[in-house]
Amino acid sequence: MSDFFNLYQQGLVRAAVCVPEVRISNPPANAAATIALARRAHEAGALIALFPELGLTAYSNDDLFHQQTLLDAALAALAQVVEASRALAPLIAVGLPLRIDGRLFNCAVAIHAGRILGVTPKSYLPSYREFYEKRQFAAADALLRPEMALLDQAVPIGTDLLFEASSLPGLVLHMELCEDLWAPIPPSTYAAMAGATVLLNLSASNITIGKASYRNDLCAAQSGKCIAAYLYSAAGPGESTTDLAWDGHALIFEQDRLLAESERFPSTEQMISADIDLERLQQERLRATSFSDSIRAERERLQPMRRVRFSPELPSGDLGLQRAIARFPYVPAKSAERDAQCYEAYNIQVHGLAQRLRATGINRIVIGVSGGLDSTQALLVAARTMDRLGLPRSNILAYTLPGFATSQETRANALGLMQALGTTAEEIDIRPSCRQMLADLRHPFADGEPVYDVTFENVQAGERTSHLFRLANHHNALVLGTGDLSEIALGWSTYGVGDQMSHYNVNASVPKTLIQYLIRWVITSDQFEAHTNALLQAILDTEISPELVPADANWENADASGLQSTEAKIGPYELQDFNTYWISRYGLRPSKVAFLAWHAWHDKTQGQWPENLPEARRHQYDLAEIKRWLEVFLFRFFQISQFKRSCMPNGPKVGSGGSLSPRGDWRAPSDAEAKIWLQELRENVPDL
């Protein structure tokens, strides 16, 4: 059980960025401060502890760096840190000046368990405006040899060093210093292409107005382009303010995402930490063909890069998780970001449909409207598309098609919305044609027996779509699909001439959780009038149901009112969307997905919720529920649903979370087995 909840067993690593309070030209005091923070990192369960540039001496020594006494004291301070590291788990990256072959270099030193793993000199020395580093130091390309003697150890030296943890697959580190990141091609770019997943920057970086924002941008961009984590530690309290000021800025990014950031302008030392998902980075690199192409283009430079191996002892037990796991990976929790993404998603859908109508020369749309979320969103997109094309909304031929289980509530919502949007609204009762087909099939329902099997359901779903296609023929129109990404992932649709099929589907890559927020965004942004907004809110408040089985049928997959419940059959959409994202987007092991889901969903009082989500809809799930519904997902996704995805209608890709179209993000055989995914889940997720 403890292995499952241990972050290191799930392919993550905890990293710490430390900003000590330094004392200028006092290496013994700085060594003590460094060791104290390294111990804090160790106690926090971290395997990486990054410190600032020249942190054992302080950065702002200027010409004091040419004093032999200071250089000797710096070496002695390094020896103290090396000795203390014997009892500590993290790789410790510290900065100090080192004299090598008669020249002085501004160096980063990697230390682990009493051993100096390697030394990396700074490549780019700023000597402009307030900087004069070339006055004191030589650049890395002035090195004469790849190894040096340091504290009685033979130590590799260079910018080509990668530090690989043999006990934690995927943990490969590289060090660079401050200005190196500001260069057009930082050394860490080559390191990432050579396999480094965690890039360390020992920085001093005085602060001026606006510089912190630029630092963030640089770290975000470098971590994003390199598909890596980027750790940054700037000098803080204690540095000289003779001419400059220092803000002690510490940052941890993972592929353009900020995981942790320090307080700026602290009065004392500080440490930040976060958990980096190494497996996620590796999986992303597998998919990024441009990243692989870059490696091939630079292979002559990358092949000689050296790997230095070390074997950290992995902390055991449940260490918690120091990273935010979004409950809704397709839906940002912060309102401004969420609104911006809803605006983009909505307009991608509108743009896609508008282009399809222009390309076909067709100016009418046929759509079935059930009063549920998906058809509502598609209808809203259709209405705005007609507005954009300068066509009347009456060109939307909207039909509600009640069957044996259609409720008065959804029927009223469908009719009201169609009329409020100014469509050509009609109702066709499909029950007579369904009865005829059931009679032709000699189905027991035709003889009055209450048999509500899959045939009974699919006759209705197929009849609806059959009507829509023939209506489109009759009116020279295009059938607009409504099925969403969540249903496509789970195969929750009727194959062929059923709700799977259409001429164009604007919801094809929009999951159910995002559709809810798109409709909420339409309401709050006043895209339509107040009466329409009231109808939209009523639709949001309605239980998700296919409404194919009568509510009085004593149905096993029903909610408390007896209504047929989709989520009682295939699981909560909020969990299944979570599973879809992590499995289709990143290819993670099922047990890892369960681990992430547990951290996201097991306690509804923790973490961020979208602020406009009603309290009653803020759910939590224990590990048993997460495992149960993930098992349902794995079987449906990998084994029984791909044949439906192989012939999906056209539709625009909306989000970076992906599309399951065979012409887009997902190609897979239709006859695969789910056995290995189910086995991995059952073997590695405990039954609590």
Please state the structural category: alpha/beta
General form: elongated
State the end-to-end distance. Answer: 9 Å
Strand order of the largest sheet: 13-12-11-10-9-8-15
Q: Would you identify the regions where 5 or more consecutive residues have pLDDT less than 50?
A: none
Radius of gyration: 30 Å
Task: Estimate the mean pLDDT confidence.
Answer: 94
Strand content: 15-25%
Measured as a percent range, the helix fraction is 25-40%
Give the biggest sheet.
Answer: 7 strands, mixed
Tally the helices: what do you get?
Answer: 24
Key phrases:
elongated, alpha/beta, 6-stranded mixed beta sheet, 688 residues, 7-stranded mixed beta sheet
What is the element layout, followed by pairings?
Layout lengths: L1 H4 L6 E8 L7 H17 L4 E3 L17 H17 L6 E10 L2 E10 L2 E7 L11 H4 L10 E4 L2 E4 L4 E5 L6 E6 L1 H4 L4 H7 L4 E5 L8 H15 L3 E5 L16 E5 L2 E5 L8 E8 H10 L1 H9 L1 H4 L3 E5 L24 H26 L4 E4 L4 H17 L6 E5 L7 H13 L3 E4 L3 H10 L13 H22 L2 E4 L3 H6 L13 E2 L6 H13 L5 H11 L25 H5 L2 H14 L3 H12 L21 H18 L1 H4 L29 H10 L4
Parallel strand pairs: 1-2, 2-3, 8-15, 9-10, 10-11, 16-17, 16-19, 17-18, 19-20
Antiparallel strand pairs: 1-14, 3-4, 4-5, 6-7, 8-9, 11-12, 12-13
Helix pairs in contact: 2-3, 11-12, 11-17, 12-17, 13-18, 14-15, 17-18, 20-21, 20-22, 21-22, 22-24
